[in-house]
Amino acid sequence: MALTYRGRAGKFLSDRGVKDYDLVLVETDRLSLKGRVIPRPELFDDTHLVIKLNNGYNVGISVDKIKNLKILEKGWKHREPEIPRMEPRKGLPYVPMVVTGGTISSRVDYRTGGVRAYERPEELLDIVPEIADIANIDYRPLFAEFSENLTAGHWVKIAEAVAKELNSGASGVLVAHGTDTMHYSAAAVSFLMKNLGKPVVFVGAQRSIDRPSTDAVLNLIASVRVAVSEIGEVVIVMHGSSSDEFAWVIRGVKARKMHTSRRDAFLPVNSMPIAKVTREGIEYLSGFRRRDDSLKVEIDTKMDDRVFLLYVWPGMDPKIVQIIKDLDYHGLVVAGTGLGHTPYEVIKELERLVKDGIPVVMTSQTLFGRVNLRVYETGRLLLKAGVIPGEDMLPEVALVKLMYVLGHTRNMEEVRRLMMTNMVGEISRSISMRFFPPCWVS
Amino acid sequence: MVELKVGLEIHQRLNTNKLFCNCPSKIIEREPDEWLIRKMGVSYSELGSIDPAARFEVLRDREFFYGIYYDETCEVEADESPPLPMNEKALEIALKIAKIFNMIPLDEIHVMRKIVVDGSNTTGFQRTALVAMGDDESYVETSKGRVHLRTLCLEEESAYIVESRREYAKYKLDRLGIPLVEIATAPDIHDPDQAEETALKIGRMLRATKEVMRGLGTIRQDINISIEGGARQEIKGVQELELIPEVIRREVRRQRSLLDIKREMERRGLSEDELEDSFANVTPEISGSNSRMFRKALSSGNVVLAVKLPKMRGLLGREIQPGRRFGTELAGYAKVFSGVKGIIHSDELPGYGIDANAISSIASKLGLSEEDAFAIVVAEKGSAEIALGAVLRRVRMALKGVPEETRRALPDGNTEFMRPMPGSARMYPETDIPPVNPELILMRLASWRYESPEEVVERLMRSYGLPLEQADMLFDEEKVDIFERIASSCRHLSKRFIADVLTSKMRYLRREGHPVNLISEKMLEKILSLVDKGVLAKEAVESLLADLSLNPKADVEELVRSKYSMDESLLRRIVEEAIKKHRDLLKEDKDRALKKIIGEVMRRARGKVDGRRVRDLVVEKIESEA
Ligand SMILES: [Zn+2]
């Protein structure tokens, strides 16, 4: 066992031979407390000892006030709850889960409060036994990262892992993912997959799975249902309302996390949900590419991650744009205002970038609606400057797509053509009146 | 008296915003604006240790409805946002309370998640923190000795339950998150009255901070009882202090009766093996009955199951608490574990539309002999089996004595089974809230001085000449502040009169059914200042208060002018008439005549003038005539 305490508390404890989880008796002026030494996160101060008392409470004691400390027992015997082994059921489809990290793939250790990743599918079935009736699931741990730490390199690894499973008999693949950047990864995997005929389902949790109120239970049941469904696309499956009633199936290139913490944070933008899934079944709501098990997936892993995403604002210093070139970026996505505008002074800087062979794609901060650079003078000037209209693509989707496109060509005309061509449903032919406001709960 | 050990847990709501969000701590009467529907995701392997009473499948299927209020509750109560940092004001009050009881604050306070799976928290856990602990020097003094205080926790109140069934439970979120201090005493209490005294004393000390909530439900007591030879019980939710001794006495009686029953079972030679998990379907035997209850239940596809309880005849009907029989205990287990409404046992038959014929055919189907009993239950087959299984389990426990239980206090002082006593609570750190160092608050509190209830009462008696009873009443009704304000601004009024209006008069009117709680402190101050200025007669205060309680929006001065003051010329005329009437007596016995004249004027003025003023007027008039 280790000792996680640093500084003054660290010295105090190591001088007395104390390690994490030892049972100790601590005496101060008036208190005499018996408890387990609980590991101390690095961000906390270095003057307190935290012990877990017999009544379950953790309490912190200033080491400066400790008059006497006695070790009563070294270490803590581990007693994990028994989880029975499970055999795969005959006749059920096979759905592996590629694990990338996030709250959905780990649980808190009740003794210590530490977080631990799952190792066996039984651990998941222990919490969501319902999915054992729908499919035989299995674990494919890939990495354990907070989703904000993922890079284009990770996206390629996810796509490769998914493709490998799809081509070896999986009915569909789940991707357990942190929610913060799930829509970036889902968009990236959408562009990287060629010839996809099976569901690739990104799923996560806004309330960690060790909480009784976790949203993971419904999300997992729904995502397994989608993984064996008729859908042959990359999708995100998350809660559709604050209640534990149904989940939306959202196209990976049309999804966005729109709330910091709610269960129903993910919404389709400029699109309808593909389907609504309950514990019992699936209801299709709009068009989608159908499953075709005969297809063999291929991966196109060429990506250029030197793309910048710029959120403009009134009064911004136009010189900022120059930095993008100075830092050797190969492409720029602008989240402009309204129909796709920037302050007048910025246009000239963008024009200079384009002249230098750095493509500029315009999207909108409004997220909903299509950019249109023909209505106002500013837009016409942007067009003239060579800015590529990003249609109704979300800024993040345009970012990922430009990485993909630049991975294949630096030719400005070709980049323009590809960015304005719908590849996997990222550009809508028409935007229906019912896409906004985004509430379809009946 | 048997050896009795009682400890109290006192839960007191604090008068601040909520503990982990900025919403008001307000109970809302209207229907919620929207209901959310949630389920509980608890892992199979953990469940047993969290709540032995909860069955996994039942719990997972159960739906929880949460009523939200758009303007009064927020994302935090709905478990849609992480908690905000701990309300510092609430922590300060908790630390003040620790100081009052001479408890020792912890150097670093850690918020924990205590797992609860009954749905009473949207998160599935209650946030709670141990703020201070006690030692030998932390105690309250009672007439029967010191009662020590062990722990002081600051925690969030649970959601208010509206309805609970096996398939679902409904809660409102207005109450969820109100700050609560939980003060636990050591088991130092040895008799029922001392328990009440302790609770009363602690409650008064808390109120003296002026920072705790008042009113129904804002303070409640849990009682931990152990009885020699019996078992430890945790009794939840005693709301009225006066009930505490009765709850304890009845618990002692219950445990004694259960031990008598145990001895009787042993005498009859009942062994555990004789209690068989085999249930007979007696639907045909019952369906002949002319009971409406049975006809209705059976028409919706339910069955009647029966179980044999060997050698138990006469024991099921035995009273263990006033009006509660051993059979009621069995029914409690059946209800909690299966959700049925109750059971019927053979000691209460014939009855419920089951006649002697039906009884004897059930008896022969179960193969009963003379000293055997049986229990039946009407329900859907699965629930009925679970119910009778629970009944058998409870009978087996009876062979061992008294089981340790968590019980709910009933309004008459009886208790009913809630769930088996939980093992040590499942607690893990609330990682969304960093530990709190209370050092700065404690420095601030160094100069804070607490005036104890005794000190307040003593000061009221000394400074204002009030009798003990009045001073006590002012304190208990939290009217010390308003009393002192009025006493300093109304110099002519007697202090006892002010105290009397604030306490006895208001109490009297409330008992008479006047909603005097609608009268604001501002109004009371106004009324007494009018008396002080001689505009309003002392004698009129009571009926004015009664009037105002029915019409609390009225303007006090306007009402006094129109209804409670007498025209000067009319008053003078009445005075003249009264003097004229008693002129003879005036010559014979001036003092007696004066009394009569004033009495008559007062009667005719019907409380619209002040007695002092009438006296002045009468004397003035007589002297001017002389
Ligand atoms: Zn709130």
Describe the structure.
- The complex is a heterodimer of chains A (442) and B (626).
- The longest helix of chain A is centred in the middle third of the chain and has 15 residues, at 152-166.
- Chain A is of the alpha/beta class.
- In chain A, strand 12 (200-203), helix 5 and strand 13 form a beta-alpha-beta unit.
- Chain A has 3 domains: 7-73, SH3 type barrels (Roll); 94-299, L-asparaginase, N-terminal domain (Rossmann fold, 3-Layer(aba) Sandwich), CATH 3.40.50.1170; 307-419, Rossmann fold (3-Layer(aba) Sandwich).
- Chain A contains 10 helices and 23 strands.
- Helix content of chain A is 23%, strand content 22%.
- Chain B has 4 domains: 4-232 and 424-429, no CATH class; 267-403, GAD-like domain (Gyrase A, domain 2), CATH 3.30.1360; 453-563, no CATH class; 568-625.
- Chain B is built from 22 helices and 23 strands.
- In chain B, a hairpin with a 2-residue loop joins strand 17 (319-321) and strand 18.
- In chain B, helix 15 packs across helix 17 and helix 19 (568-581) crosses helix 21 (590-605).
- The chains are: A alpha/beta (442), B alpha+beta (626).
Would you kindly provide a brief summary of this structure?
Chain A is an alpha/beta fold.
With helices defined by DSSP (H or I, 4 residues minimum), what is the helix count of chain B? 22
Shape, principal axes of CA atoms of chain B = globular
**CATH topology tier name of the largest domain in chain A:** Rossmann fold
Structural class of chain A: alpha/beta
**What's the rounded overall pLDDT mean of chain A?**
94
Q: What percent strand of chain A?
A: 15-25%
Helices and strands in order, then pairings?
The complex is a heterodimer of chains A (442) and B (626).
Chain A: H1 7-15, E1 23-27, E2 32-37, E3 48-53, E4 58-62, E5 68-73, E6 94-99, E7 106-108, E8 115-117, H2 121-127, E9 136-141, H3 152-166, E10 173-176, H4 182-192, E11 193-194, E12 200-203, H5 216-227, E13 234-239, E14 247-251, E15 255-257, E16 266-268, E17 275-277, E18 282-284, E19 298-299, E20 307-311, H6 320-326, E21 331-336, H7 344-355, E22 360-364, H8 377-384, E23 388-389, H9 395-406, H10 412-419
Helix pairs in contact in A: 3-4, 4-9, 7-8
Chain B: E1 4-13, E2 34-38, H1 44-50, H2 56-61, E3 63-68, H3 88-100, E4 104-105, E5 108-109, E6 111-115, E7 125-133, E8 139-142, E9 145-156, E10 160-164, E11 168-172, E12 179-185, H4 192-207, E13 219-227, E14 233-238, H5 244-267, E15 279-281, H6 283-287, H7 292-299, E16 303-309, E17 319-321, E18 324-325, H8 326-338, E19 344-345, H9 356-366, E20 373-379, H10 381-400, E21 405-409, E22 415-420, E23 427-429, H11 439-445, H12 453-464, H13 468-476, H14 480-489, H15 495-511, H16 521-532, H17 541-550, H18 556-563, H19 568-581, H20 583-588, H21 590-605, H22 611-625
Parallel strand pairs in B: 3-11, 14-21
Antiparallel strand pairs in B: 1-12, 1-13, 2-3, 4-7, 6-7, 6-23, 7-9, 8-9, 9-12, 10-11, 13-14, 15-16, 16-20, 17-18, 19-20, 21-22
The complex binds zinc ion.
Zinc ion (ZN) binds next to loops of chain B.
